[in-house]
C-alpha cells in the first residue's frame, strides 16, 4: 500500500501532517473523509471498542507478555509506563530510552518503555501497534527495513494499524475524542 522506508518529506500542500510520507492519493481519500465528517465512522467501524489496559501495571504486563512471545532472549524490561509528557508524533510514535546504569561493577542496560498517555483510551489494536514498535527497538534502534520486518513479525497488520492510528490522531485534532473517556462499553 505504501513504502514505509521512504524518507519523510514535508507536505505543505495540506494539513495532513500525520500522513507526511504517505502517497498523495491517500491524502486525498483521507481529506475526503474529513470533509464529509466520516473519519469517525470509518474508525468506529473498524475499531468499535477500547481496551482496559489503563494503568502502568497493566501495560507492563501487556508488554511483557508480547516480549515473552517474540523476544524471549532479549534483556527483561525494567519499566513500562504511560507518560503524559510524550507527544506521539514528535517522538516518532513512541519514545525509546535505553539507560545505561552502573550496577555494582557491571554496566547494565536498563530497558524502559514509555507510552504516550493518549494510548490509555484507544482500541487495543493501537496500543498493540505502539508496544510492538517499542519492542522492535530492543533489537533495532533505527526505523530501517529490519525494524519494520520485526514489527510485522509481531503484528502482521502493523502497517495498516500505524496508518489507522494516524487517522485516529487526525480525528482527535479535527473533531476531538472518538471514544468517551468514561465509557469502555461501546459498539
Ligand atoms: Zn521508533
Automatic annotation (TrEMBL):
Its EC number is 3.6.1.-. It comes from the Bacteria. One of its GO terms (molecular function) is hydrolase activity. PANTHER family: UNCHARACTERIZED PROTEIN YGJP, UTP PYROPHOSPHATASE. Residues 108-165 form the YgjP-like metallopeptidase domain. Keywords: Hydrolase. It is an enzyme of class 3 (hydrolase). The keyword RNA-binding does not apply. Signal peptide: none annotated. It comes from BD1-7 clade bacterium. CDD domains: M48_yhfN_like. This is UTP pyrophosphatase.
